[in-house]
UniProtKB/TrEMBL annotation, chain A:
Keywords: Kinase, Transferase. The keyword Lyase does not apply. InterPro entries: HATPase_C_sf (IPR036890), HATPase_dom (IPR003594), His_kinase_dom (IPR005467). SUPFAM superfamilies: ATPase domain of HSP90 chaperone/DNA topoisomerase II/histidine kinase (SSF55874). This is HAMP domain-containing histidine kinase. One of its GO terms (molecular function) is kinase activity.
TrEMBL record, chain B:
The modification 4-aspartylphosphate is found at D60. It holds the Pfam family TPR_8. The keyword Transcription regulation does not apply. GO terms for biological process: phosphorelay signal transduction system. SMART domains: REC. Residues 383-403 are annotated as: Disordered. This is Response regulator. Residues 10-129 form the Response regulatory domain. InterPro entries: CheY-like_superfamily (IPR011006), Sig_transdc_resp-reg_receiver (IPR001789), ST_Response_Regulator (IPR052048), TPR-like_helical_dom_sf (IPR011990), TPR_rpt (IPR019734). The lineage of its organism: Bacteria, Pseudomonadati, Pseudomonadota, Gammaproteobacteria, Oceanospirillales. Keywords: Phosphoprotein.
């Protein structure tokens, strides 16, 4: 019998399941539209909706993870205004935070731009925020700054924080698998400029006191972007 | 982000699945669209785009058996059925997004991944329309083919909105190519590539070298693109063009066959393969390519007489070395019928069609039918509705008829 590539099969199985989640979300949407906001079941439907969305986002993460790990992902970078990018992320994730009575916001210089793969970083930020939702007490903050030749996107919370002395700090993220951190790391290192690779850092949050996951993405060295005539 | 007023915008929704179509239509009307046209397949969409103008086109990537959303986009952009001022939003699944991102040459203004909520769609559309507003002067200049003005306008936009740098640089580079300012184009693409490995910049660079006649450098860059982007099949078409220029028709044919293996539904590619195969006297390959082109033409902006007539020509050339097989004859008849239906008013088309028919009947040794067709042709020549046969044709045919 021909030997089969189980990871490819799992990836396509995840894909199938993800599509089914999509169909369920559409059906749920019409159910939600059919009942009034005051209906006692409305809240339950919103909860189911948020869980399905999270499931969908997780499967998207696994699919990217599979492609990154098997070298099957073509990076598509472009220039983005971080104010817009982070606003998008907060917009997409706010309902999940609200469902848990947590605050979620972002800060960055309104004129800050960066070069990165938008889909990949969207998946990284949502993975990190979903994770923070499990540990935060009241608040999660996404921020972006330019540090030397890196764009740094950070996700901080006011929970317990990484236990940095722990032998396996990954255990904090994603149960015991460390999949979320691994995904963030692969995504960061996929960004390369002049042989400088991206990376991640796990730190304590100075402003919120909890965990801080920072993703460092290399940027062009000097600002030549406006220099052409 | 400014709140968009969608009520005066005209939308076209292209989606083959009923459930999704109903849902998306509801979403669009819920956030203000009052004019929404619906197409269930690419063919209908092309018809609607011919007869109406739209501000927003929301198209699914997967459109069932016909053309997919990306092919539709390529065709309508290539044949300028939509202006640069219109917004094209592609609805994708995780698997199809790479095809869309990998297309490089013709990309939608934005994409949205299924499943999405009404709020997400509204927000995405608002942003895209806002970007279109910011680029309005640039796009108006592009629509007017005023590339100098487009360059100036794009430079103004970069100053005002730095986040649009990538889009504007691309427009400037491609406009330089349009006005044949190859040196300026090259320096812009190189500058972009120095900072960011943007596929469009590498594509621009490769095209620039092609237009400058530096075929070796062009080939090197197209090959790099093919390595970097598995889904960018257009690079093969350009590579084939270089091979044709270098008189390597066999290589060009092999390149196109490889491209068609990756993406078989592109009619222009099939026609190019047919053309090169005819030049190589490889009539079997030519017939196959044109037969596929005939099939694709039905759903296409490129539904021209040439597709059909070239198919007959390739079959006629096959018949030069013996009678057609029954299956080939059926193909000939079916394409002939389509020419009669749609393209038989043109005197040249008539002449070519008659001559290929005569070839095929002569190959069958059916001299009397061949002769009848020749006489029909001549009588149409008399009435002025067909181009006369060449002297060479007349002498070959009359000799073949024997009597």
């Amino acid at each position: 019998m021909k030997k089969i590539d189980i990871s490819t099969i799992l990836a396509s199985a995840i894909h199938e399941s993800k599509n089914q989640v999509g169909t369920l979300l559409y059906q749920l949407q019409s159910l939600k539209d059919a009942i009034s906001n005051n209906d006692a079941n409305h809240k339950k439907i919103v909860l189911i909706e948020e869980s399905l969305k999270k499931l969908n986002d997780e499967w998207v993460e696994y699919l990217y993870l599979y492609r990154l790990a098997s070298d099957g992902y073509d990076l598509h970078v472009d220039t983005f205004l971080l104010d817009e990018f982070l606003d998008d992320q907060v917009f997409a994730l706010l309902p999940s935070a609200k469902a848990k009575n947590l605050e979620l916001d972002y800060t960055c210089d309104p004129s800050l731009t960066g070069i990165f793969d938008e889909r990949l970083m969207t998946a990284v930020v949502s993975t990190a925020v979903y994770n923070a939702l499990r540990f935060a007490k009241t608040k999660i903050r996404i921020s972006a700054i330019k540090h030397r030749d890196f764009l740094v996107i950070s996700i901080e919370d006011d929970g317990q924080g990484f236990n940095l002395s722990d032998d396996q700090p990954e255990a904090f993220l994603e149960g015991n698998t460390g999949l979320g951190l691994y995904f963030a790391e692969l995504s960061a290192t996929a960004h390369v400029i002049d042989e400088v690779k991206g990376f991640i850092k796990k730190e304590s949050s100075l402003s919120l006191g909890g965990a801080n996951l920072s993703v460092y993405l290399p940027q062009p060295t000097t600002d030549q972007t406006l220099s052409f005539k | 982000m400014a709140q968009q007023d969608f009520s005066k915008k005209k939308a076209l929704l292209i989606e083959d699945m009923a459930e999704a179509r109903i849902m998306q239509r509801k979403m669009l009307s819920d956030f203000g669209f009052t004019s929404i046209e619906i197409a269930m397949k690419a063919e209908t969409a092309v018809e609607l785009l011919r007869s109406h103008s739209f501000d927003v086109i929301l198209s699914d990537y997967n459109l069932g058996n016909g053309k997919d959303g990306q092919q539709l986009l390529e065709e309508i952009r290539h044949s300028k059925l939509i202006p640069h001022t219109a917004t094209y939003l592609m609805v994708t699944a995780e698997t199809s997004i790479e095809m869309v991102m990998g297309a490089i040459e013709y990309q939608p203004d934005g994409y949205i991944t299924k499943p999405f909520s009404q709020a997400v769609l509204q927000r995405r559309l608002s942003k895209l329309l806002e970007t279109k507003e910011r680029l309005l002067e640039v796009n108006l200049a592009l629509d007017a083919n005023n590339f100098n003005e487009a360059i100036l306008a794009a430079k103004r936009v970069i100053k005002k909105y730095p986040s649009l740098l990538g889009k504007c640089e691309r427009i400037i580079g491609e406009s330089f190519l349009e006005i044949k300012e190859y040196k300026k184009a090259l320096s812009l693409f190189n500058k972009t590539l120095k900072n960011r490995k943007m596929p469009w910049a590498l594509f621009g660079k490769a095209k620039t070298y092609f237009f400058m006649g530096e075929l070796e450098k062009a080939e090197q860059n197209f090959r790099q693109l093919m390595l970097d982007n598995r889904f960018f099949v257009s690079a093969y078409d350009w590579l084939a063009k270089i091979q044709v220029k270098n008189n390597n028709l066999e290589e060009a044919q092999a390149t196109l066959i490889e491209a068609i293996g990756k993406s078989p539904k592109n009619i222009l590619r099939q026609m190019e393969l047919g053309k090169i195969s005819l030049l190589l006297n490889d009539y079997i390959a030519a017939e196959m390519a044109y037969r596929r082109a005939v099939f694709l033409a039905k759903y296409s902006c490129y539904n021209t007489a040439e597709v059909y007539i070239k198919h007959l020509e390739s079959l006629a050339r096959i018949s030069d070395s013996g009678p057609l097989l029954p299956r080939q004859k059926d193909n000939f008849e079916s394409t002939l019928k389509k020419i009669h239906e749609s393209f038989f008013d043109d005197p040249d088309n008539k002449a070519k069609t008659y001559s290929y028919e005569i070839d095929v009947y002569l190959a069958d040794n059916d001299k009397s039918t061949a002769k009848q067709i020749f006489e029909a042709w001549l009588s149409e020549v008399k009435s002025g509705s067909a181009t006369p046969p060449s002297k060479q044709q007349s002498s070959i045919f009359t000799k073949s008829f024997g009597s």
